[in-house]
Amino acid sequence: MTLNHIVFIVMDSCRYDTFTAARTPNIDRLGQAEKRFSYASWTAPSHYVFTMGMLPHASPKEVFASEVYKSEYLQWKDRIGTDAIEFKNFLPELSLPKVLSKLGYRTTAKVSMPVLNKYTLISQHFDDYKLMDNHNNFAGMVEEIEFPDDEPQYYFLNLGETHYPYMLSGENLPHISGVHGAVKGLGKDPNVAVSGEKQVFEPAMLEMLRKQQVVCCEYIDGLIGKLYEKAPPNTWFIVTADHGELFGEEGYFGHGPIMHEKCFEVPFVEGLVK
Fold first, then answer.
1. What CATH number did the domain enclosing 63 receive?
2. Class of residue 188 by CB neighbours under 10 A (exposed 0-12, middle 13-18, buried 19+)
3. How far is the C-alpha of 50 from the C-alpha of 10, rounded, in Å?
4. pLDDT (tens digit, 9 = 90+) per residue, 115-161?
């Protein structure tokens, strides 16, 4: 039985409309990207859903949620390239890496965000799990990835290039902590870590940041092209995002404790390279 290699690429914080504004000739080889919706508005819970084997949803009307979930899990037959998957093996952990390991996959995660570090629950059931040395190191991931002939590979990649500050190098922008950084700051001095002051970027800065996320999508697309060159023909690629991002719409910036549609709209495309 020949199993597909699987490469699951998550562009952290990449919202749908900035992705579609980017030139992505390599990702386009997988097919037309859809607008999908994340199950959560920030990194950790979205990635936990991914490790369960679920992907951003299409939000269909007039169906029970259970039918949507069934459909999502059945699609793993196509991704793996066989009907041999036994869905009872997802229970009780609901762990995709564990199921793939039972099928003979080597499961590897490479992540960019500290909130996903190897001591978190998300790291469970992976054979290898690595937090990269900086959050702009998709190039390092591509260099490290290998596809041996005798063992199917599952790579789960969290990319930080599309996360704030959306800069590939050098720019001096304000540091904004996520959950990991906020808790770390509380441990040092809770009075410094929490501020009641209104914090905003000027409109021109917000527009610049939005454009930078587009630039980062194009940079990632170039590296995905290099990854295609290393991957055998039977490699199934998934390219999506964990959540969206706000660039000043209705007074919002960033993601997380925000209830806004742009926090949930993400790109989604998958398939074999054409």
1. 3.40.720.10
2. exposed
3. 10
4. 999 999 999 999 999 999 998 999 999 999 999 999 999 999 999 99
Cα–Cα distance for residue pair 178/163, rounded to 1 Å: 11
Cα–Cα distance list, 38 to 24, 162, 218, 264, 266 (Å): 21, 16, 22, 5, 7
Q: How far apart are the first and last CA of the chain?
A: 23
Confidence of residue 200 (pLDDT cuts 50, 70, 90): low
C-alpha distance from residue 143 to each of 29, 139, 160, 194, 257 (Å):
21, 6, 16, 39, 35
Q: How many domains does the chain have?
A: 1
d(CA 30, CA 79): 13
Q: Are 263 and 255 in contact (CB under 8 A)?
A: yes
Query: Which residue reads 């939000």 in tokens?
Result: 59
Rounded Cα distance, 96 and 116, in Å: 17
- Read off the pTM: 0.90
Nearest to 53, CA basis, from 125, 116, 2: 125
Query: What is the predicted pLDDT for the residue at 189?
Result: 52
Domain coverage including residue 35 = 5-170+178-272
What pairing do the DSSP bridges indicate for beta strands 265-272 and 235-240?
A: antiparallel
Beta pairing partners, 253: 247
% of the chain with per-residue pLDDT over 90: 77
Sheet holding 106-111, edge to edge: 34-37, 265-272, 235-240, 5-11, 153-159, 106-111, 128-131
Contact criterion met (CB below 8 Å) for 205 and 166: no
Paired with 11 in beta bridges are 159
- State how far the Cα of 227 lies from the Cα of 110, in Å rounded to an integer: 14
CB atoms within 10 A of CB 196: 5
